[in-house]
Amino acid sequence: MSRFYVGSEVGQLRKVLLHRPELSLRRLTPSNCEDLLFDDVLRIEQAGEEHDAFAQVLRDQGVEVFLLRDTLAETLANPEAKTWVLDCQVNEHRYGPSLAREVRNYFESLSNHDLASHLIGGLTVDELNSACGSPTLGMMNQTDFILDPIPNHLFTRDTSCWVYGGVSVNPMAKPARKRETVHMRAIYKFHPMFKDADFHTYYGDSDMNYDLATIEGGDVLVIGRGAVLIGMSERTTAQGVENLARGLFKTGQAKKVIALELPKARSCMHLDTVFTHMDVDCFTYYPDIMKGNNCWELTPGDNEDIVFTQVKDGFTNAIARALDLDSLRMIPTGGDVFEAEREQWNDANNVLAVKPGTVVTYERNVYTIENMQKAGIEVLAIPGEDLGRGRGGARCMSCPMERDDI
């Protein structure tokens, strides 16, 4: 039986889920990229080659790599899974009865691989090629999307996150990303690899409106030894943190959550864009986040209550206490103030540890890499000239599913 357990941020990485750039990113244009939460359009062939290099670096480190589209296609081979996914995404209220029937019939006629591609990459009026007389269809142009692409699936970190012996299937903050959760719920519910596996589902796997209680995995750091660090950011709310903490404590999978307030800014979209773990006692950070952050420790109370304690001596001391360390080694973004801002924007602090003291990062962030190497960190540099345009680095683009404790 497959084992799914993530005990830390830096223990040996064993299984990871990635998503190679494909149809959804090919459909990014200057006129729609902002609505789809991208700052720029990518050269898909180049981005794909860079992503392949990333995946190969992980394989060379002994990591088993799973690709999202293939995993979704394998899930859709189960008729119950296909029905569930289509029920979630094609309905009479979204399209009107006539067009809904046409879209459903078209999707059911596709192979599982092609269906997975369109669920992620979207469907245009022209591709549907329908003679349906629906006014909904009649008011659309041939290049309009009947089903929008979801290019942010590239960032597999956010949609679900494994924390110790379970997973949170995250309610996403932005409408452009909400359908991603449908795919991950289906994979964890129906894919043969997960269907009979033994793991907890802490949060997010219900047909309900989660309202303001949103969580994205880029804000969730499994720092180890029963502790979890969660940033309250542009995308993750205090309400979401409290709900996830309750699930973690109820199952006994974590004993402490450190909740850190972050600036609500695009450049600090998630905690892992400014702060990541490189070795048991070592973190990379962007200096601007070190200024007066509110921080709380959440611990289990009686009757499934949560005890909240405001941290008075800074979040780095809270992390050191949780890891039973005297102090942390903190490695800043490299270069002068201008170079540091440029490198942080290009994901210099968004590194993925494959084992203690060995991290993957974009080769373009030369000043930060120099700082890391001086601190004794082994850096596995990957190309990111086009991948980096998506504003996500190695950690953003990876969802660890098995990783050792520290």
Description:
The chain contains 16 helices and 20 strands. The protein folds into 2 domains: 5-65 and 151-403, 5-stranded Propeller (L-arginine/glycine Amidinotransferase, Chain A), CATH 3.75.10.10; 72-147, Arginine deiminase (Pentein, Orthogonal Bundle), CATH 1.10.3930.10. The two termini are 23 Å apart. It is of the alpha/beta class and 406 residues long. The mean pLDDT is 90. It is found in: Cytoplasm. Keywords: Arginine metabolism, Cytoplasm, Hydrolase. It catalyses: L-arginine + H2O = L-citrulline + NH4(+).
The CATH topology label of the largest domain is L-arginine/glycine Amidinotransferase, Chain A
Q: Count the strands?
A: 20
- Ranges with pLDDT <50 over ≥5 residues? none
* Second-tier CATH architecture of the largest domain: 5-stranded Propeller
Subcellular location: Cytoplasm
GO molecular function: arginine deiminase activity
Organism: Parendozoicomonas callyspongiae
Catalytic activity: L-arginine + H2O = L-citrulline + NH4(+)
